[in-house]
Design brief:
globular; alpha/beta; 39% helix; UDP-N-acetylmuramoyl-L-alanine:D-glutamate ligase; homodimer; 10 helices; 312 residues; 4-stranded mixed sheet; 10-stranded mixed sheet
Chain lengths: 312, 312
């Protein structure tokens, strides 16, 4: 079973409007509501892959209830420690004429030390018997930046491997706790090594620094340039076939799901990377984060070029 | 006690953003959530005036829970018949740089005949001992356009006077049920008589037609031109002192609250109209619908010119 941590989930609300009047009254012809946030996207993709998955997190207010209910309706097991604050919303306005999307991300609710302690009890109880833990997404206000490092250390004590998808201080500190895989994107990797990275060789060198700092493997997501994995067994580059039109939101989450899935199955790195890259590509073509069509996945899988990289 | 009917309430979500990126990611610096919809605005204004008020309506889903909780937190008594659908949201994006506001009004949830029957039981039970009923706002999908006429007839049977604020067929049919006061705006009045109305004399003539069709009094809200009341005791025009800068959303609801308040107090028409117009003006100056500052109300009250109209 893969345990997915979601400390700052969201209720994603999407309005589809044909020709938005940005200074007037609009009547959306389609309204969507779904549980969101990076962790929940990862969990839904894992569930769609047939993996046993459980979410643990923090949720509060009627938006928190909606997130928990939506996750249950999607067939994903979840347990949330209650918080007094209200789980955040994200609001997307999709103009179906211009194809522009405006996103409004509310700040997360403040979490108290007592509430986080309740979560930790839930997390510790869920760790036993897990095959992997995914730590993904932003920390809500009130939680210290070493929170992911603490969760990774508890997983290590329980001999459960960790996949870490975070940026900033949470990435730097989390890497020191020895995750099996860290998955920064290019901007997050640049932030971690505090310098611009131009070209695959520079990316590989920076990823190797995160390995030296504690991560067993580092997979860097590079958008249209695919994935670069720097591991103890070698360095691989997975290049997608061509630019895919669609919504890149959540593509990184699909990659994380693929990496965690490959990790628990023990898939060799070249195949694990191909699987993760194909999920990311298929996710871009899907209408909503956390979803993909099997045909898109199969097409991407066939088109992705994985090369063991000479520069390791 | 004034009973306010809210068949299609809303959860109003407002994001304040400095310089909106309409095709990118925004992080609102201020997020507001409040119970909304015309009926609830009327109820909050009545509550602020010190009137005893109770809301009855229909609500469902977590948004419905949020509406009920927000109303209770505002100190307004409310009872909602449950519906399987989800109470709608309205979403406002206020650009604090340009002062543009974009509004996104979700469609209301479909209401079944059985759910409406539950509401009718609640309504009938609440009617006993009421001093007035306010019927205000749009009907949710699934309810027939004669719904307000039916509610007005039940109020008449219980000898409770009705204030009706509706447009379209709900106004035409509701007027026939003999409300004490109908409060259309200019567009709604034009729709009811099916012709354009230019000038106060034309408005007064059309209002007299609604009286002939059954309404005891008709008060037309004319935006910056104030209110025109055509009643059995005479015709009055209330002219606001000058254009007030601010948010006109909910100004009509404040006028309805003032009219209902004056109705139950038995205030003479000239004073009743001045009170209602001052509340509408003060509401424009307030940051949110259903609110007003007493100083704004007092200033408006002093500045409004009420004239008995020769053209009656």
């Amino acid at each position: 079973m893969i345990l997915v941590v979601s400390l700052n989930p969201a209720l994603d609300v999407t309005h589809h409007v044909a020709g938005v009047d940005w200074s007037g009254v609009n009547r959306p012809q389609q309204v969507g509501t779904a549980p969101g946030g990076k962790g929940l996207n990862v969990a839904r993709t894992l569930h769609a892959l047939g993996a046993a998955v459980q979410v643990v997190g923090l949720a509060g207010g009627v938006t928190g209830e909606a997130v928990a209910a939506g996750l249950a309706a999607a067939g994903v097991a979840g347990a949330f420690a209650p918080i007094a604050g209200q789980t955040r919303r994200t609001f997307a306005v999709v103009d179906t004429n211009s194809h522009d999307t405006a996103l409004f991300n509310e700040p997360g609710p403040a979490v108290t030390a007592g509430e986080y302690h309740e979560f930790l009890v839930l997390y510790e109880n869920s760790l036993a018997g897990c095959d992997a833990v995914v730590l993904s997404g932003s920390l809500p206000p009130g939680l210290p930046e070493e929170s992911y490092a603490g969760l990774a250390a508890r997983a290590a004590a329980a001999a459960v491997p960790v996949v870490l998808d975070a940026g900033g201080a949470a990435l730097r500190r989390g890497v020191a706790a020895g995750p099996a895989i860290a998955k920064p994107n290019l901007a997050e990797l640049q932030g971690a090594v505090r310098r611009p990275l131009v070209g695959l060789a520079a990316v590989a060198a920076a990823a190797a620094e995160l390995r030296a700092a504690g991560a067993h493997a580092v997979v860097v997501s590079l958008g249209g340039e695919g994935l670069l994995a720097v591991t103890g067994e070698g360095t691989w580059h997975a290049a997608p076939p061509a630019q895919v039109a669609g919504n890149p939101t959540g593509a990184g989450d699909a990659v994380v799901a693929g990496l965690a899935h490959g990790l628990v199955l023990g898939t060799p790195w070249a195949d694990r990377l191909r699987h993760a890259a194909a999920l990311g590509t298929a996710c871009v073509a899907a209408p909503a984060a956390g979803q993909f069509a099997e045909a898109d996945y199969q097409r991407a899988l066939a088109g992705i070029q994985v090369t063991e990289w000479a520069g390791r």
